[in-house]
Amino acid sequence: MPEITVAIPIYNEEKNLEACINSVINQSFTDIQVLLVDDGSTDSSAELCRAFAKREPRIEVYHLENRGVSKARNYAITKAEGSYICFVDADDLIDKNMLEELYSCIKSHNADLSICGHQRVQMNNGKTRIVTHKCPEFNGPIKEFLTEIEAFLFAESVQGPCGKLYRMSLIKDNMIQFPHELDFGEDTVFVYHYLSFCKRVVSINKCLYCYMKRDNTTLSTLLREDKYQRYLYLYDLLEELLSSFQIPQRSNIIERWICLSAVDCVRELYDHRYGLAPGRRRGIMRNILLDDQVARCLSRQRTGTLHFRLICFFAHNRMFYILDLYFIVLSFTKSRVGLLYALLGKIYNSQLTKPTKDSFTTWMAHIF
Fold first, then answer.
1. Using CA atoms, how far apart are residues 330 and 308, in angstroms rounded to an integer?
2. 193-248: per-residue pLDDT in tens?
3. How distant is the alpha carbon of residue 279 from its chain centre?
4. What fold characterizes domain 4-221?
5. Closest CA to 85 of 181, 194, 179
6. Which of 263, 243, 269 is CA-nearest to residue 254?
7. Which three-class secondary structure state does DSSP give residue 5?
8. pTM for the structure as a whole
9. Which phi and psi angles does 321 have, rounded to 5°?
């Protein structure tokens, strides 16, 4: 029986699949089972999978009707023979030592979950941008991990299923699955559910998983006006998890992350790819920031960066035209951000609650 099962759900990834599979079968840790679950691809992905299986005995290929990535991952769980399982997306890459390092940590510390950091590689118009997310070093019981979970949330090390090694018996004994009825946040739901049964977690401060984001558009790059509501649902689940382990300061953690997610949803509205009309953009922004739960959390924020506190302050005081201007400038140029910070900082420090028409015109003239 293999020690580790690597599950790769696949849908129309003919351009990226070969590199992904090679990064898995060329791992320094060789005692693996590789499950290629083709989720009804309409390109040549299925043929590529079969070609790999012919020359690599550790690979098993399964073909399903197109039912979504959660169904594909859940199917892989039913076919997994390893003591541990790791999930890899078909358009991503993993470091040649990832499995070995995650396995060494989870075994030596008798943990239920091992986590590593990751890189996000953005490839757009022939340009490559790499953002590194180092995972905090950790080794301890689950309650201690959840007490420090905010550091892992900031590092984006806990929200997704990849870059982790899970104990297979824990998944099967507790019937943990990816919720296929969700099309946003299903990864996070799986991780939170899994954490609720963990006793010990270990993490390493190395970026061994590589998320590849290319020019092609996927569900995650489409505008979702209800995205902030999905975040609220995920934070309700996180609050339940933290409450079940009686984590102190859990309310502060949840409120802070509700605010951060709301701000991120607003920032996304200014992505030029969406081409939103100003009126619609401001309307969506108002819906997000005036949501009862979001507004309540925004009103309580007193810490964080100047950028974050400014946004919370102006949102709480319903200064939406100033926020609109702020995000417009941020989306077009970085050269004037310092000036914008200074101007908005003066407003913040003076505790102005409602801008006048004249003052707003003056700020516009200074910036443009």
1. 13
2. 999 999 999 999 999 999 998 765 444 456 778 888 999 999 999 999 999 999 99
3. 29
4. Spore Coat Polysaccharide Biosynthesis Protein SpsA; Chain A (3.90.550)
5. 194
6. 243
7. strand
8. 0.85
9. -70, -35
